[in-house]
UniProtKB/TrEMBL annotation:
Reactions accelerated catalytically: UDP-alpha-D-glucose + 2 NAD(+) + H2O = UDP-alpha-D-glucuronate + 2 NADH + 3 H(+)
UDP-glucose/GDP-mannose dehydrogenase C-terminal domain boundaries: 364-467
Top-level taxon in the UniProt lineage: Bacteria
Binding residues for NAD(+): 58, 63, 112, 148, 188, 314, 378
Keyword field contains Oxidoreductase: yes
Species in which this protein is naturally found: Fimbriimonas ginsengisoli Gsoil 348
Binding of substrate, residues: 185-188, 255, 300-304, 308, 371
The name this protein goes by in its record: UDP-glucose 6-dehydrogenase
Phylogenetic classification of the source organism: Bacteria, Bacillati, Armatimonadota, Fimbriimonadia, Fimbriimonadales
Enzyme Commission code(s) on record: 1.1.1.22
InterPro entries: 6-PGluconate_DH-like_C_sf, NAD(P)-bd_dom_sf, UDP-Glc/GDP-Man, UDP-Glc/GDP-Man_DH_C, UDP-Glc/GDP-Man_DH_C_sf, UDP-Glc/GDP-Man_DH_dimer, UDP-Glc/GDP-Man_DH_N, UDPglc_DH_bac
Length: 482
């Protein structure tokens, strides 16, 4: 295994509740997961598929009811199938007590949404930690934090558990429980592959038992010793997965640093794209020419409207806020954010250049999710852009192949009209903007759509569409960065 730091897989706890099965005598564990969102539910399904006994707990009764009825409350490709394969290993409850009393590993995967000052709201983490403390069993439990939390949170969680458990003194608690950080790097839309076939697993703890339990938990993934589900084949050439074992603070910071790096990479290509456009260059050629340099790498160099979603914005703001507490500035991360949010203004500027007036114009938006293959609309560039256009008097009609229901529920009073198809939002529009690069948008009946528009103008916000095809279909074609 190509580990920087690997743990011996010794039998650290001759615990009767560990069951032998099915990957070469691996000991399976009893796991509780707090939070059945994009991270908790996918992690739960993957762990249960690997044979562990998993109980997913959530305070949202509707989510648990839906899951018990066999229906996932979120859209994630192949999740339903994996949950089905996991079968009886995967259970759901609003009551953590019964499963927690026997749990060997407890994941915390609750939300940490941003507050106005950039810091994440840790209310859900606090309440999960207190609940764990109240219901802790008599055996030894490793509490594993997967929520993205500020540096130092691991120790704070430990103290909350100690307090709620009645032990009070953390030293007494250390005989029954310890806290580790296991940051999550999955991307929505490819979450299950990212969990089963990760680039690395990071585990931060100051407790050797925690490290060994987690190495045991992750062994099938680290060694790639499980039989891949037919619908999620193992990537070609995939070998053993490196395990990075660190102290708590380093693991917590690895998460923020990784997201900051990815944000910065995207913002850099967008900054270059803005110059490329002025000098008559093409950012897609530039990204390819840069990305083939192994030191740079071609991924996350897709220029366009920039990043959105529930994490890049939140985590970059949290990193800046944490640094501020230590009187340190993060000018690179600040600049990455500034560049990113300015990209969204380009839509207004470009449409104004073409249409001269936005008041009373109808703009069709293709894609509401913050990226393809998810129904997540948190900090979706499409919504921000729609609002900026509405503020200038435009009428917005929008479509998304998967996020439409969620968007129409949550944005009921936004003034956006939701169309059942891409063709419907094109009809009568003065412009179309492609905001999310859903595969289905590549092959729309463009010729027919151009004919139904008041003005066949399209802005490809993701450098995704075939310009020649669109021009051929009768569109005036705009893009970002070329
Ligand atoms: N969404 C993503 O792609 C990734 C998210 N993360 C991090 O993982 C954490 C979770 O993110 P998501 O899954 O996207 O959030 P989410 O909002 O989809 O799910 C969080 C769930 O926690 C539940 N919850 C809140 N308080 C609870 C409590 N006391 N007990 C039990 N359940 C509770 C909520 O009802 C909700 O179902 C965040 O810290 C996020 O930054 C990390 C990597 C990837
Ligand atoms: O901490 C998190 O929540 C997660 O955040 C991102 O994952 P995610 O936000 O799900 O999706 P990405 O694929 O990273 O896309 C984020 C945004 O960047 C945009 N993007 C991505 C890549 C690119 O080249 N250009 C670009 O504009 C996407 O359209 C999307 O809006 C990270 O990629 C994950 O590693 C991390 O675990």
């Amino acid at each position: 295994m190509g580990t920087e730091n690997s743990f011996p897989l010794s039998d650290v706890r001759a615990d009767e509740s560990c069951r032998e099965e099915p990957f070469g005598g691996l000991k399976l564990l009893k796991i509780v997961i707090y939070g059945t969102g994009y991270v908790g539910l996918t992690t739960g399904a993957a762990m249960a598929f690997l044979g562990h006994e998993v109980t997913c707990v959530d305070i949202d009764e509707a989510k648990i009811a839906s899951l018990r009825g066999g229906k996932s409350p979120i859209y994630e490709p192949r999740l339903d199938e994996l949950m089905e394969l996991a079968g009886g290993n995967l259970r759901f409850s609003v009551d953590p007590a019964p499963a927690l009393s026997e749990a060997e590993v407890v994941f915390v995967a609750v939300g940490t949404p941003p507050m106005a000052d950039g810091n994440p709201d840790l209310t859900a983490v606090q309440s999960a930690a207190s609940s764990i403390g109240r219901h802790l069993g008599l055996g030894f439990t490793v509490v594993v934090n997967k929520s993205t939390v500020p540096i130092g949170s691991g120790h704070w969680v430990e103290s909350l558990i100690a307090e709620a458990s009645g032990e009070g003194d953390i030293r007494n608690l250390r005989n029954r429980c310890c806290v580790a950080s296991n940051p999550e790097f999955l991307r929505e839309g490819s979450a299950l592959c990212d969990i089963l076939y990760p680039d690395r697993v990071v585990v931060g703890s100051e407790n050797p038992t925690a490290n060994e339990v987690l190495a045991r938990l992750y062994e099938p993934i680290l060694q790639q010793s499980f039989t891949a589900p037919w619908f999620l084949p193992r990537p070609e050439g995939m070998g053993a997965v490196p395990l990075v074992a660190t102290d708590l603070a380093s693991a917590e910071l690895i998460k923020y640093a990784s997201n900051a790096f990815l944000c910065t990479k995207i913002s850099l290509i967008n900054e270059i794209g803005n110059l490329a456009e002025k000098v008559g260059a093409d950012i897609t050629h530039i990204a390819r020419g840069m990305g083939l340099d192994a030191r740079i790498g071609g991924r996350f160099l897709q220029a366009g409207l920039g990043w959105g979603g529930s994490c890049f914005g939140k985590d970059s703001a949290a990193l800046i806020a944490t640094a501020k507490e230590y009187d340190i500035r993060m000018p690179i991360v600040e600049a990455a954010r500034e560049v990113n949010y300015a990209q969204r203004d380009l839509v207004v500027t470009k449409l104004l250049n073409e249409l001269k007036i936005l008041k009373g114009r109808t703009v069709g938006i293709l894609g509401l999710a913050f990226k393809p293959n998810t129904d997540d609309i948190r900090d979706a560039p499409a919504l921000d852009i729609a609002q900026r256009l509405i503020d200038r008097g435009a009428r917005i009609q929008a479509h998304d192949p998967i996020a439409l229901d969620r968007a129409s529920c949550q944005l009921n009073h936004s003034g956006i009209r939701f169309g059942p198809t891409a063709e419907a939002v094109a009809a009568g529009a003065d412009a179309l903007v492609l905001t999310t690069d859903w595969a289905m948008y590549r092959d729309l009946p463009w010729k027919r759509m151009a004919k139904t528009m008041a003005n066949p103008l399209i802005l490809d916000g993701r450098n995704f569409l075939d310009q020649a095809q669109l021009v051929n279909a009768g569109f005036r074609f705009l893009s970002i960065g070329r």
